[in-house]
Write a structure and sequence with these properties.
By secondary structure, this protein is of the alpha+beta class. The chain has helices at about 15-35, 60; strands spanning about 45-50, 70-75, 80, 85-95, 95-105, 105-110, 115-120. The protein has a 4-stranded antiparallel sheet, covered by helices on one side. A hairpin with a 4-residue loop joins strand 6 (about 105-110) and strand 7 (about 115-120).
């Protein structure tokens, strides 16, 4: 008996899952920006694609990281503004305060080493396309992964046992 090929995903579950997980990042940033700041030993490493439309920051800073950049929110960050589509923050680079705006769609990684919590994201949004609107899910790439396996986000490897 021949196995039927998998049905086409008209629901776009992968994109919905990515959007929901980016919502976890947004919720964490909201807590970090609230009264009292980051609780306990929590701190965040946020990695993002610098070429995605909507990423804003000083040109001399972004040009040093033409593909990807990681920022750390720990002890010294200011003006954390958490929006529906992006967040903004001021950090010191070379001793000078610099402001950045990062759309959630540009994120490729969120890591809180204090509790070994990691989220990794697919970032298929090139710099010349618009970021998905609130409530809209970006279209997935039309081609499947090269090895034919589904895109699955698993946190099991990073959970404490």
């Amino acid at each position: 008996m021949a196995q039927d090929p998998p049905a086409q995903d008209f629901m776009n579950y992968e994109a919905m899952a990515q959007q929901a997980l980016r919502g976890v990042v947004r919720a964490a940033l909201l807590r970090a920006g609230g009264p009292g700041g980051l609780p306990g030993a929590h701190h965040f490493y946020l990695t993002f694609k610098t070429g995605v439309r909507g990423v804003e920051g000083p040109e001399e800073l972004l040009s040093r990281y033409p593909d990807e950049m990681t920022i750390v929110l720990q002890n010294q960050f200011w003006d954390l503004e958490v929006g529906d589509q992006s967040f903004g923050v001021t950090l010191k680079f070379g001793g000078r305060p610099q402001s950045l705006v990062v759309p959630y769609a540009a994120l490729t990684r969120f890591y809180d080493p204090s509790v070994q919590f990691l989220l990794q994201f697919e970032c298929d949004t090139p710099s010349d396309t618009a970021i998905a609107e609130v409530g809209r899910v970006a279209e997935p790439p039309s081609e499947p992964r090269a090895d034919g396996t589904p895109n699955v986000v698993s946190l099991d490897h990073f959970r404490k046992k």
